[in-house]
What we know:
Layout: H1 3-16, H2 23-36, H3 40-43, E1 59-62, E2 71-75, H4 80-91, E3 98-101, H5 106-110, H6 118-126, H7 130-148, H8 155-162, E4 167-169, H9 172-187, H10 194-202, H11 205-212, E5 218-221, E6 230-234, H12 245-251, E7 254-259, H13 264-272, E8 276-279, H14 282-298, E9 303-307
Parallel strand pairs: 2-3, 2-9, 3-4, 6-7, 7-8
Antiparallel strand pairs: 1-4, 5-8
Amino acid sequence: MKLRQIYELAVEIGKRNDIRGDYLLKILEEKQREFEKLQDEEKLLFDQETLHNPYSDTRILVGTGEEEIKTIMCGIDIETPEILLADRLNQKGQKIDAVLSHHPEGIAYAALYDVMHVQADMMEEAGVPINIGEALMAERISEVRRTTMPQNHQRAVDAARLLDMPFMCVHSPADNLVDQFLRRQFKEEEQLTLEDVLEILNEIPEYKKARELKAGPRIILGDKKRRAGKIFIKMTGGTSGSEKAYEKMAAAGVGTIIGMHMQEKHREAARENNINVIIAGHMASDSLGMNLFLDQLEKENIIIIPCSGLLRVSRGKGYDLH
Length: 322
C-alpha cells in the first residue's frame, strides 16, 4: 500500500465508527462552504485536508503519500527516540518503510482540540441535552487549545524529516474503534456489578496483557459489588472533557464511566455525583483501537513491528469493523 492509502483507510474507518453518523457530512459540507468563501491568498493557508478528513489529529506528518509501505514500526507514542530506533533497525538490516504513532505529533497535535467536539454528542447519547454538552465542551476546548499552543509540536516531525522517514499518526479513528468495540461488549449486558464489568474487560486480550504488566483495568470509584447502572464509554474525543459534565451525566442517569484515564479533579467531580469509575487503562485501550486498525493493514500484507507501549494483538479476520 502507499502511505496515502493507509491514511485514507484510517479516515474512512474513523468515519464509519463515529457516533455522529451522517452529521459528519454536515461538518464537512460546512468546511467546504468556509473554504469557498475565502480569498485566493487565504485559501493557500487553509488546511484542505479538513475538507474530507474530520479528524485534525490524524495526518501524514512526513512523506508525500506516494511512498510504498511494506513494513511499519508502530507505537502508542512515536517521538525522536522511536524514530532514531527505526533508523537504527534499518542500519541493522530490518527494513522499516514508515513509523506510525497513535498519539498525534506536529500539526496533528497542534490541532488536537478540534476533535473534542464529539464529546458533546457522546453526552447527548447518554441523555444530556446537546446544548448543554456543547456549552460545556466549548470552555474545555478553548482551555486545551491554549495549553497546546506553547508546545514544541514539530520536534519528532523534524527528526523524521531529517532521517527521511515517512511518519504519520492515527488518533481519533483508532479511538473510535475502541469506543465502538466496548459499546458492543456492553450493549446487551444488564444488571452488571462493577466486578462483572471488570471480568468482561479482563477477557479482552489487550486488557489481559496489561493486567500482567500491572496496568490492567481498575475501579477507582465505587465498590465491586455495586451495580453499574447505565454505562458511559469514554474512549474517544481527543482528551479529557469538562469536569463540570459529571453533574449533568448523573442527572441523565449515568451510573458508571469506563475510561482510559482520569485526572484527579475529574475523579473528585465523579465522586461528588456518585458516579462509579472504572479505568480500563491508557496503553491497553489505545492498543485495542490501534490493533483493530492494524489488522486491516495486515490483510494488505503489511508487516507490523510494535513498539512504544503497543500491546499487539492480531484478530485477523475475526472482527467486523462494519
